[in-house]
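User: Hey, quick favor. My workstation is busy. Could you predict this chain's structure for me?
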Amino acid sequence: MNNPIKNILVLSFCFLALISCKKDDSALHDHELFSRLQSGSGSWKVEQVETWNANEADPKTTFYYPENDFYHFYVTSNYLFGDIADFSYGSFYSNDVFQWKTHIEAETDRVSFVTLFVGEGTSWTVEVNKRNKQVWNCLNPNNTFTRITLKKCDCEFPTPGGENAG
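Assistant: No problem, here it is.
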């Protein structure tokens, strides 16, 4: 004879197993922030930059509002030891000029622009992590504290030098 309670329990278990399929298997959600950064256009305009001396008790804050500075986040695939591997990258553009690109590691509360050299690169602490707004903080080696506010954008990439329109 069928036991309705047993059937309901088995169906509930199967339902839970099915909805957990295709979910991120990382318990720490390490790539949550990078997914957010590279979604859509992958571009984030620098709305505001604040700096102050972290050694001073009552520091004077300097504000800067760049007109055309933005970050672009993307994934690129490369061959590595005969296999294809995906790498997370970030590029920075300022006043219609490409400035730099580097490997990026982005977790829920930290963004690091990684270089090839140990002890180099820049790490930012994430203060605000929203779909269309980011606020990051960084303490530089000279004890200057920097806070940047980023806003999601469809920023226009600069035209490579030497390219002519026809």
